[in-house]
UniProtKB/TrEMBL annotation, chain A:
Spans through the membrane: 63-85, 135-156, 177-198, 258-278, 285-305, 383-403, 423-447, 490-510, 531-554
Name listed for the protein in its UniProt record: Potassium-transporting ATPase potassium-binding subunit
Organism superkingdom: Bacteria
HAMAP family in the record: KdpA (MF_00275)
Primary role: Part of the high-affinity ATP-driven potassium transport (or Kdp) system, which catalyzes the hydrolysis of ATP coupled with the electrogenic transport of potassium into the cytoplasm. This subunit binds the extracellular potassium ions and delivers the ions to the membrane domain of KdpB through an intramembrane tunnel.
Similarity section: Belongs to the KdpA family.
InterPro entries reported for this sequence: KdpA
Cellular component, GO, one term: plasma membrane
Automatic annotation (TrEMBL), chain B:
GO cellular component terms, A-Z: plasma membrane
Protein's UniProt name: Potassium-transporting ATPase KdpC subunit
Organism: Cypionkella aquatica
Family membership noted in the UniProt record: Belongs to the KdpC family.
InterPro entries according to UniProt: KdpC
Quaternary structure note: The system is composed of three essential subunits: KdpA, KdpB and KdpC.
Xref: HAMAP family: KdpC
A molecular function GO annotation: ATP binding
Compartments where found: Cell membrane
Reported function: Part of the high-affinity ATP-driven potassium transport (or Kdp) system, which catalyzes the hydrolysis of ATP coupled with the electrogenic transport of potassium into the cytoplasm. This subunit acts as a catalytic chaperone that increases the ATP-binding affinity of the ATP-hydrolyzing subunit KdpB by the formation of a transient KdpB/KdpC/ATP ternary complex.
Pfam families: KdpC
Membrane topology, from the record: Single-pass membrane protein
Length: 569, 181
């Protein structure tokens, strides 16, 4: 670790911090129906869309109706994306003449982009036509992110409103998130990326004759427009197989900083939006502090582990000065790789600029754990906020148990129904992750996909199902996941991780919205101070972390011990 | 249920046109007009022939050129990938031992594959280690090459942002200008 390295990390985090208040307040304005400076351009588009779709923007939806609308929209998205991928060969903009995807891969990819996971069982530049990338995948990068934001806003209104039946209107929230938040940011980020060197063309690529006379075919495409929303929407699905490590997705240190800023900024600003909408920005900052604390701790561990390096390589005569450099790029170095690793998994982004499967054991433990903690640090756009609200509800419940009072959060009494729904939601992750990993670990058809033996092989399985259920999308990519078993089970894991989580959360929001909002009294546990932040961090670590500790002990933890003992596989 | 069908289908179609067609095409138009060089892959031409991209690494094998890092895909720029081998992998350690070939204190980037398999850069230490071999093959003095490497070493912006690095293709192009291969 170097001082310069930490300063680089600080610069990126400071740029994010400086953007939070303006963006958070802007989003609060968007979702409370206020006028923004983009209204003259976007308002006619918005109302035009409502007219075409027969949506009455003033009509409120209860949680049930809101959830059904969300599910219908997702089902329509799944059907259209599946069709595009299967029929790719007959659709335009396919300069390389790629064939349609087989059914299991199309199923997996459609679910993946629909759930904001962007798990990629394929290599982009060897599988997808420009049309599939632009009109298929990138569209869902926007819409799945907008769906996440919409649900977060519904959950926010459950606390902002008193004795209300409605949580807002899904169509309005989703449309506004796309038009007023994601699209304008994407245009700006895409243009900056192109300036920094990211290609944007409809050509397939070009051929070069190297100085030694060899031929090199260099793939290109409409990369920048997709890269922008891939980061901003915490999607993470790269145009290329190597994702943000590919020089055309991420050409320089500056583009890397922009990529990290873009993937963090919306998720980190949403707690401010939440705070503003419930009438206390301080509450937003308290939630954000808990997220930032755990995230920065994660960055520190990855940075330390990776610069400490791999003693087995040093023993072979490799200079340990650069740390573990397998699967890393020179232009990012250790500090910007470490920051990217922690941020992309603390968020449910899953873009990678270093190969997670080649990290040192403890360096690889961090992304795995950050995903398993529930993708709330600060989590995917929208999904991070509603996930954090679930943890906050559980935290005040724990506090209430300790002092023997009915817990309250933001003036809403937290009772048996809310706690049951919150626990139902948080149980989805361990059930799906540990269940599928356990079955795969006993199945010869699954084990033949592993590229690494020993504990790293178990980590590859554990990481795959964590990434899928957590809707992250990054991988220990030694696993050859493009098989019917993994395409199917990971697809199911992604679907459950998104929808089986969201439905109890919306039900909890519906029940909370209907309650009256009580004024704070002297007996109210303040949820915007240090004590609450500490309690929240504790609940996340205990609830999210302990469930996975036995599995982690058999994977990265034992791998670290074996590395120190000099054992190889 | 059915009341949600029309908005679901209509909004999906409208957004596909806006986000999947209008947005990328508009960005492509602006990119091709304002930043044609970057938008088309930062191509490098020599005597009117495209020899590569500023951003994409290439394989160099002859002793008279500086060599890029090992690549898991042999610099196939139509199929990027890292090795994805874990730290205890015998396959990884055998490969590294082969590339180290008995030397000591080898710069790590000289024997590790990059994440993309297309890293265009090497570390200054890696370049320095190759000077003796290249100088012998080209029949120039090591000092001349040391200066060339120094001239082609990009430093962090403001001394802070980025890493010291050498673009291998740019370095080899400059090398061809000062000495015959």
């Amino acid at each position: 670790m170097t001082l310069i390295g930490w300063l680089q990390i600080a610069v990126v985090l400071a740029l994010v911090l400086a953007s939070l208040v303006p963006l958070g307040r802007y989003m609060a304005q968007v979702f409370t129906g206020g006028r923004t400076w983009l209204h003259p351009v976007l308002r006619p588009v918005e109302t035009g869309f409502y007219r075409l779709a027969g949506v009455d923007p003033a009509r409120e939806q209860g949680w049930h109706s809101y959830a059904v609308a969300m599910l219908m929209f997702s089902a329509a998205g799944f059907a259209s994306l599946y069709a595009i991928l299967r029929l790719q060969a007959y659709l335009p903009l396919n300069p390389q003449g790629f064939a349609g995807l087989p059914p299991d891969l199309a199923f997996n990819t459609a679910i993946s982009f629909l759930t904001n996971t962007n798990w990629q069982a394929y290599g982009g530049e060897t599988t997808m036509s420009h049309f599939s990338q632009m009109a298929g995948l990138a569209v869902h990068n926007f819409l799945s992110a907008a769906t996440g934001i919409a649900i977060a806003m519904a959950v926010t209104r459950a606390f902002a409103r008193s004795g209300a039946q409605g949580l807002g209107n899904f169509w309005v929230d989703m449309t506004r998130a796309t038009l007023y938040v994601l699209l304008p940011l994407s245009v700006v980020v895409a243009l900056l990326l192109i300036w920094l060197g990211v290609p944007q063309t409809l050509a397939a690529g070009f051929d070069a004759t190297t100085l030694e006379g060899a031929q090199q075919t260099i793939s290109m495409g409409p990369i920048a427009s997709q890269e922008a929303i891939k980061q901003l929407g915490t999607n993470g699905g790269g145009f290329f197989n190597a994702n943000s490590a590919h020089p055309f997705e991420n050409p320089s240190a500056l583009s890397n900083m922009l990529a990290i800023w873009a993937m963090l900024v919306v998720s980190a600003a949403l707690p401010i939006t939440f705070g503003r909408m419930v009438g206390s920005e301080r509450q937003g900052w308290a939630i954000l502090s808990a997220m930032a604390f755990l995230l920065i701790a994660g960055v520190g561990v990855v940075y330390w582990a990776e610069t400490s390096g791999n003693p087995l390589m040093a023993a072979l005569g490799v200079d340990p000065a650069m740390g573990n450099f397998e699967g890393k790029e020179i232009r990012f170095g250790q500090s910007m790789s470490a920051l990217f690793v922690a941020v992309t998994t603390g968020l449910s982004c899953g873009a990678v600029n270093a190969m997670h499967g080649s990290l040192t054991p403890l360096g690889g433990l961090v992304p795995l754990l950050l995903i398993q903690l529930g993708e709330v640090l600060p989590g995917g756009v929208g999904s991070g906020l509603y996930g954090m609200v679930v943890f906050a509800v559980l935290a005040v419940f724990v506090a209430g148990l300790m002092v023997g009072r009915t817990p309250e959060f933001l003036g809403k009494k937290i009772e048996a129904r809310e706690i049951k729904l919150a626990v139902l939601a948080v149980l989805i992750l361990p059930m799906v992750i540990l269940g599928f990993t356990a079955v795969s670990a006993m199945l010869p058809a699954a084990l033949s996909s592993l590229a690494n033996a020993g504990p790293h092989g178990l980590s590859e399985l554990l990481y795959a199902y964590s990434s899928a259920a957590g809707n992250n999308g990054s991988a220990f990519a030694g696993l050859s996941a493009n098989t019917p078993w993994f395409n199917t089970t990971l697809g199911i894991a992604m679907g459950l991780g998104r929808f089986a989580y969201v439905i109890p959360v919306l039900a909890m929001a519906g029940s909370l919205a209907a309650k009256p909002r009580a004024a704070a009294s002297v007996g109210t546990f303040p949820t915007d101070g240090g004590l609450f932040i500490g309690l929240l961090v504790g609940v996340i670590l205990i609830l999210g972390g302990l469930q996975f500790f036995p599995a982690l002990a058999l994977g990265p933890v034992v791998e670290h011990v074996l590395m120190l003992a000099g054992k190889t596989f | 249920m059915l009341t949600h069908l029309r908005p679901a289908v209509v909004l999906l179609a409208a957004f596909t046109l806006l986000l999947g067609v209008a947005y990328p095409l508009a960005i492509t138009g602006v990119a091709q007009a304002a930043f044609p060089d970057q938008a088309n892959g930062s191509q490098i031409a020599l005597d009117g022939k495209v020899i590569g991209s500023d951003l994409i690494g290439q394989s160099f094998a002859s002793p008279g050129y500086f060599h890029s890092r090992p690549s898991a895909v042999d610099y196939n720029a139509a199929g990027s990938s890292g090795s994805n081998l874990g730290p205890l992998s015998q396959q990884l350690l055998d490969r590294v031992a082969g590339d180290v070939a008995g030397r000591v204190a080898v710069p790590a980037d000289a024997v590790t594959t990059s994440a993309s398999g297309l890293d265009p850069h090497i570390s200054p230490a890696n370049a320095a280690e190759q000077i003796a071999r290249v100088a012998a093959a080209r029949k120039v003095t090591p000092d001349q090459l040391a200066k060339l490497v120094a001239d082609h070493t990009e430093q962090p912006m403001f001394g802070l942002i980025g890493e010291p690095r050498v673009n291998v293709l740019r370095l080899n192009l400059a090398l061809d200008k000062i000495a015959v291969n």
